[in-house]
Structures are given as structure tokens and as C-alpha cells.
Amino acid sequence: MKQYLKLELLVELPADLEVELIKPPTPQVDNPIIVEPDKKIIVDSDKKMTMTVDEIAEELQVSNTTIYTMVRQNEIPHIKVRGRILFHRATIEKWLMNT
After folding, report:
1. Is 73 helix (H, G, I), strand (E, B) or coil?
2. b vs e for 35-65, b when ≥16 Cβ sit within 10 Å of the residue's Cβ?
């Protein structure tokens, strides 16, 4: 596991100095991609981490009944939280890449 150290530098600036802070652009990723060699998946951070049966059915362009059948037969990675079936977006994307 890689570990990173975050450092903050505090500097006192003269009062008459004008400073403009520039935020680096964040890359917009529409579709996840596999990056070699670590095989990490880049996921759009604006999307939710989990999806419902309705959302996954829409994403995969299949019916809700198909998703429920796949869940019942353990054909698709899922979790159950208090009776709700949820799908972890990154796990589903990785599963799709491997099938």
C-alpha cells in the first residue's frame, strides 16, 4: 500500500502583496478507465458511490427483473443494507471490465 505525506507550508506575506490562489483543474472523467500497471479505476467523483436496482438497470440497459434475477443467482456483485439491494459503483465498473 502506498502512503503519502501531506505537507502544509505557512508563510507570512507582506500586507501590500496581492496574491491570487489558483486551483488546479480537476480532470472530468465520463467513463472509468483502467490505468496500467496498477489497474486502478478512475471514477467521476460527482457520481454517487452506490446505485439502486433501478439505477443499475438503467446503466446496464436491462430490466429491473433481470437485475433481481442476477442478484438472486449471485451473478452481479451487490450488498444488502436493511433489505435494500445496493451496488458499489467502482465494484460494478471493475466487474464489467472483467466480464
Report:
1. coil
2. eeeeeebebeeeeeebbebeebbeebeeeee
C-alpha dist (Å) from residue 27 to 6, 42, 43: 21, 10, 10
The predicted-structure confidence for 52-84, as pLDDT tens digits, reads as follows: 999 999 999 999 999 999 999 999 999 999 999
DSSP state of 6: -
Verdict on whether the full-model pTM lies above 0.70 = no
Between the two ends of the chain, the Cα-to-Cα distance in Å is 26
Q: Is 66 exposed, middle or buried (0-12, 13-18, 19+ CB in 10 A)?
A: middle
